[in-house]
Amino acid sequence: MPSVITVTSDDSAVPLEEQVTRTSAALDAYGHIVALAPADPTDPARRRIHTVRSALEADRIAIVPSALPPLAVTLLAEQLRQLSGTDLGPGVLAGAARLLTYYLHSGALLGSVARLDRVPVGVGTHVKSLVPGRHFAVVAHPEPYLGEAAPDSVPPGPGYQTQLAIAGKGVDPGWITGPLATAWRSQYLREVPLPTDSARWWGTGKLVEFTAYIADVGMLYQLVTSVRRDTCTWCGLEVIGDQCLFCATRLGDRTAPAKHAAARPPREVETPRRPQLEPHKR
């Protein structure tokens, strides 16, 4: 059962009628849509996709709110597109959008925090940001962190191997590619285009955004298939988590919620199973 993964953002807006037509065509071609939308219910992009869903009366569109920074959202969508090529159904893919969020570590190196409102900023830090040449290390997910970028001052990172994506050229990325990459045991540094929403999200155009993520689709597949699955009692889709994200039916009490499974990091001692070799057995 094919699915298409999309990210909603205000910069990519098209006239509503055209968006309805495009979405209808995508549903005809792929069957289901998993849309990553901003967490703020009043965000124009999120309201627009809800309007489109209502106009089409389509319960084949899952809208997954995300408070992740823009680069992390882009990489999450990339991971879901990789998984859409395996045997995972749309209900499981939609739940995976929530599950895989736990395995993203995302932040930015900023030239100023004067307009930053994503993590708590003290008065003293605001004053320091007025001094030219200061760089600030900020982590927005999974735990907020703010400090001056220094070789001996690195925020906590993932306890498992990841790749590190960086985006932007507003400041010197040396702290990211040096101390941070070393402390986070990054296997590979990948430079990608800066998302158009990044400057607004971080409150400044002087930034380099970074995200540590799992790139191997076999490991992603192992993480998702290790979580208990259920069948939605309303639409019949196989799902993970406590709710079907397509029809919004809640699944009631569960003995092994997805959020508990997500708290366990992937084990590096095992070789990840490739989905085409060892498909999930019910």
Strand order of the largest sheet: 6-5-4-9-7-8
Tell me the series of helices and strands, N- to C-terminal.
Answer: EHEHEHHEHEEEHEHEHEEH
Q: List the domain count as a whole number.
A: 2
Measured as a percent range, the helix fraction is 25-40%
Count of individual beta strands:
11
Mean pLDDT: 85
Question: Please, could you describe this protein's structure?
Answer:
This protein has 9 helices and 11 strands. Strand 10 and strand 11 form a beta hairpin. The two termini are 17 Å apart. It has 282 residues and is α/β, with parallel strands linked by helices. It has a 6-stranded mixed sheet, with helices on both faces. Strands 1-2-3 form a 3-stranded parallel sheet, with helices on both faces. The protein has a two-stranded antiparallel sheet with strand order 10-11. The protein is globular and about 55 Å long. The protein folds into 2 domains: 3-103 and 216-262, no CATH class; 105-213, Hypothetical Protein Tm841, Chain: A,domain 3 (2-Layer Sandwich). Residues 265-282 have a biased composition (Basic and acidic residues).
